[in-house]
Amino acid sequence: MIRVLLAEDMHMVRGALVALLNLESDIEVVAEVASGDEILPTAKAVQPDVAVIDIDLPGKDGLTAAMEIHESLPDVHTLILTSLGRPGTVRRALDAKVNGFLLKDAPSDKLANAVRSVAVGRRVIDSELALAAWETDECPLTPREIEILRLAARGRNVADIASELYLSPGTVRNYLAAVVTKLNARNRVHAIRIATEAEWL
């Protein structure tokens, strides 16, 4: 019997997923939670074989929770469900070392089969999502450039960013200029939009 922990904040969706999985003779949902903060403590308590996690949860997001499970409970496999098929999200999921990544509107038998595959250590990625991730560009920015652009996106000015990161204002301006150049952006605002849409921030 494959023991499943299910994390989904929408009550009706969670109920439907639990019912679908419990119809399978070899799958049992042993715990269900509605927020990302509950995932790791519940997983530690019930020791599931697979954690099926919605990517958008209140509290911690699904990918953060999946990373925590990977670090603390390496024997628990993770399957991420998402209604967002954006390439950047897929890349983040792969970086988080999740075992599976599936669109929420996939047929019910596909979900059950994905749980079975993930339970035995196979990687399951929806083919359309995998293709989109394969075709998307790698982020050309360095971690420091992303950090500075993220602060700029939050409305911080050059002086604020310089103070927060213990850099000179001139250095911050140089980083932002490099970002604009690398992204072929018209200006800083355009660079923020490009990076946000690509899910690099």
Give an account of the 3D structure:
- With 201 residues, the chain is α/β, with parallel strands linked by helices.
- 52% of the residues lie in helices and 15% in strands.
- The protein contains ten helices and six strands; from the N terminus they run E-H-E-H-E-H-E-H-E-H-E-H-H-H-H-H.
- The chain has helices at 11-22, 39-46, 62-72, 87-95, 108-119, 127-135, 143-153, 158-165, 169-182, 188-197, and strands at residues 2-7, 27-33, 50-54, 77-82, 100-103, 124-125.
- Strands 2-1-3-4-5-6 form a six-stranded parallel beta sheet, sandwiched between helices.
- The radius of gyration is 20 Å and the shape is elongated.
- 35% of the residues are buried.
- The model has no long low-confidence stretch (mean pLDDT 89).
- InterPro entries: CheY-like_superfamily (IPR011006), Sig_transdc_resp-reg_C-effctor (IPR016032), Sig_transdc_resp-reg_receiver (IPR001789), Tscrpt_reg_LuxR_C (IPR000792), WalR-like (IPR039420).
- It comes from Amycolatopsis samaneae.
- This is DNA-binding response regulator.
